[in-house]
Amino acid sequence: MPEEIFTIVRVPVKEVEESLRAKHALPRFLSEVRVDGDTLIFSFSGEMEPVLTKESVSTIIGTGRRRRARRKRNRMKTRGWDVAGRMTNSKGQQCTIYKPFVDALSETEHTNEEQKRLVEKILRSNRNRPSEGSIQYFLENTLEYLQKQKRTTPSGQGGLIT
Q1: What is the full DSSP assignment across 80-135?
Q2: Which of 10, 11, 37, 115 is the most buried (most CB within 10 A)?
Q3: The pTM is what?
Q4: Cβ atoms 97, 86 nearer than 8 A
Q5: CB neighbourhood size of 38 (10 A)
């Protein structure tokens, strides 16, 4: 029978935790350490460390479930803005068109860059930090709404349908 040599390396969790804290800004408490497949998972929290019983430790180690990452939703603050209309845009999305954008973009003498700056200014005025995608979204939807309004409004009545 051939001889086998095993090498065992024991690293205290505290050493790994200190190494992680040195590299990253982490919350105060280490709340959970578990093995998931071939990955060692450390969970940190800013709250008090929960008291673990024997049963809770065995369920933490024994479960193979993965937690979904929490994502921050990118929502624009639109409180106080009047709604000009709702529509389904060319991409099939349900969208709300707001009056400040309609008022600012209804003048046709603005260049594309000026229109973009106007939309960004309106978004920032309501304490938003808009991304490039958000600015494009509001700009494109409002322009599409204005084009639909021009097609459906009779030109001789000044925009009022009686």
Answers
A1: TPPEEEEEE-TTS-EEEEEHHHHHHHS-TT--HHHHHHHHHHHHHHTT----HHHH
A2: 115
A3: 0.52
A4: yes
A5: 5
72-114 pLDDT per residue, tens: 777 888 888 999 999 999 999 999 999 999 999 998 788 899 9
Joined together, the tokens standing for residue 72 give: 């921050």
Q: How many angstroms separate the CA atoms of 123 and 128, rounded?
A: 6
19 burial level (CB within 10 Å; 0-12, 13-18, 19+): exposed
Question: How far apart are the two ends of the chain, measured CA to CA in Å?
Answer: 99
Write the pLDDT tens digit of every residue in 15-44: 988 888 888 888 888 888 888 888 888 888
Question: What one-letter code names the amino acid at 11?
Answer: V
Calculate the dihedral angle through the C-alpha atoms of 116, 120, 122, 128, rounding to the nearest 10 degrees. 160
